[in-house]
Design goal:
The structure is a single chain. By secondary structure, the chain is mainly alpha-helical. 27% of the residues lie in helices and 7% in strands. Strands 1-2 form a two-stranded antiparallel sheet. Strand 1 and strand 2 (80-82) form a beta hairpin.
Length: 91
């Protein structure tokens, strides 16, 4: 029986409101919470629909965007956007 393995890479943007975070009882444990949420969501969807698929956690990296020259906030919607290289500013 042959098995085909694929590495699927997904990116999430997580905005954290520091004022709200200060009022939260538990500190944010982003890595573990994100890992659990993603695996739970995939398991919930795939368990009934795709018994032939098994999902395992492979890796995760966290990259703060503040101060990165290749991204910036949109002036209209305040979402993170990729900036054209000619508009990069050095911080």
């Amino acid at each position: 029986m042959a098995t085909e393995t694929t590495l699927l890479t997904i990116s999430f943007l997580i905005d954290r409101d520091y004022e709200v975070a200060l009022r939260t009882l538990l500190p944010l444990q982003a890595d573990e919470q994100i890992r659990k949420a993603v695996l739970a969501a995939l398991a919930a969807v795939l368990s009934g629909e795709r018994p032939d698929v098994r999902v395992e956690w492979e890796s995760m990296s966290v990259v703060p965007l503040e101060g990165k020259p290749a991204v910036g906030r949109c002036a209209v919607c305040n979402r993170w956007v990729d900036l054209p290289q000619e508009k990069w500013t050095r911080s």
